[in-house]
């Protein structure tokens, strides 16, 4: 208890020492951003006429048990801000991200953060390692546009453990004048959803049932063994099988343009929108490259984020999934879109409802 | 009613596969196997017909019918348990199901329609009483207030494919709650007004009813166009049309559909109605 108190005090002192220095060396306006849990994204401008700012974010490393499927399977999870994935942070090129990373005293492990969008010091990982009861402030300049993964990377085998236990999220650095198609025409979205994909590796007991553990430390040896086989027991969107289906399905209206940001910090994925397309897709996620158009399926490399823009043309239910269908259906990586609006018979119609086959369509008797 | 030749043939094939045979005479009855039943009816109730309906070539809501259950219905108070099913497996009359030992006090799940029919045939032989799966009509009657209509609210349905898909999706999503999918001890989901427990809990129940596709004519007469007894109705929080050989509820529906969490069953005893009762579709399947 005494050591925790000291850690808190020293963290507070660190802030007092660092904050004035930060204010002095950059004469820029500051803005505090309240992050929201995925699939939602905090309010932001798509194109901005404002000059660069220092945008202040806070992430709290939260260790907790989370349920990852309908059967009640438990994961000793590690998270940023309590959600899997961590929240999407949106800034513009030239802005400064000033992140306060808090590791609460009740944590059992040290945590840090590696921003793929940042330059130097292992993406900030070297400068942000905080023990339970500590916090740290890191500032990095957003020099490259695109969507990028961030994740915890505390060193050695703790790196994959923290990532497959939930500690990843994404940053979106928008061009100051917004998104563009390959010809330089502006692209806008009416809604943005952030889908973080995770592969989980839950140990099983002798009977084949998933095991649960009282703590992270106790789950680690078994989980490490499952991880090394590289065969996930769950592949899910937003932390749980069914997190984005049923009552939690994503919504849109016909005519609306939706930007889907998809990150996978550890493993490859193949997003596909059943019944729709990717109108403009930054498959590798970087907005300085022209988007590909009219894609059926795109590829998210493990350790990266991608972005797809689509204008819904038809109402109904769409499945957004990884088109490794075993992973989508058996392991969980499926989301649903509920789209309202008027049906377009020109794009599709059922000419005749199902009926019994005609004689000419029958197989010969055998 | 007009019936196409093909439909009749499918129906005949279906009849051949029906597993519940009449009780054999002469076997010693094992009364310890007799399940507790609730006797209901005769009565009249309003019934949403199962199946897929169209009107003038467009999808249509299934009609509501006032149905008379003519006979008394002796239906199991609870679902068949894993322990009970195990006895049928031990007798060599039922296919083994994974995980039976672990859930002895819980409803058997992971059973196909064929498994359920085999159990009914075995129980009939073992007890000397005629047991079978209920029809969807009988199940809906017994379910009473637990029956979920599944048809979207007025105005949300109609023939627009988009709105229809959304309405059906929402109805199915609403019918499910946040309870875990893992089967729970018998009685967990409580009793309905008839004293039947766990209806529309997290275990869907096989019925004997076949999938029917039908057209609603201009005069509101219903004309079946396809009858498929390879697809049976699993009743529960929403109706599911499942291939009869599948025991995994998640295999039902399409990519964006809502599927049963588990497949199990309860049986009815044919006291007053030795003839298979098929209600509206009598003579069709």
Q: Can you describe this structure in just a few lines?
A:
The longest helix of chain A is centred in the N-terminal third of the chain and has 24 residues, at 2-25. Helices cover 14% and strands 34% of the residues of chain A.
Order of helices and strands of chain A: HEEEEEEEEHEEEEHEEEEEEEEHE
Largest sheet of chain B: 6 strands, mixed
Note poorly predicted spans of chain B: 1-26
By helix and strand content of chain A, what is the structural category? alpha+beta
Task: Describe what you observe in this structure.
The complex is a heterodimer of chains A (366) and B (285). Chain A has 366 residues and is α+β, with helices and mostly antiparallel strands. In chain A, 14% of the residues lie in helices and 34% in strands. Chain A has helices at residues 2-25, 158-164, 216-228, 325-331; strands at residues 30-32, 54-67, 74-80, 88-92, 96-103, 114-115, 134-141, 146-151, 168-174, 179-180, 186-187, 191-200, 234-237, 250-253, 257-264, 271-274, 278-282, 292-295, 304-311, 316-322, 334-340. Chain A has a six-stranded mixed beta sheet with strand order 13-12-15-19-17-18. Residues 1-21 of chain A have low confidence and may be disordered. With 285 residues, chain B is an alpha+beta fold. Chain B has one domain: paralog of FGE (formylglycine-generating enzyme) (Alpha-Beta Complex). Chain B is built from five helices and twelve strands. Chain B has helices spanning 5-17, 82-90, 113-127, 136-143, 161-175; strands spanning 37-40, 43-48, 52-55, 58-60, 64-69, 73-76, 131-132, 204-216, 222-235, 240-243, 263-264, 268-269. In chain B, the strands form three sheets. In chain B, strands 3, 4, 8, 9, 10 and 11 form a six-stranded mixed beta sheet that branches. In chain B, strands 1-6-12-7 form a four-stranded antiparallel beta sheet. In chain B, strands 2-5 form a two-stranded antiparallel ribbon. In chain B, strand 3 (52-55) and strand 4 form a beta hairpin. Mean pLDDT of chain B is 81; it is low at 1-26. Chain A binds chain B through residues 70-72, 207, 209, 245-247, 249, 254, 274, 314-319, 321, 329, 334, 336, 338-343, 348-350, 352-357, 362, and chain B through 4, 6-7, 52, 54, 57-59, 102, 160-163, 165-166, 169-170, 172-174, 176, 180-182, 213, 225-226, 250, 255-256, 258, 261.
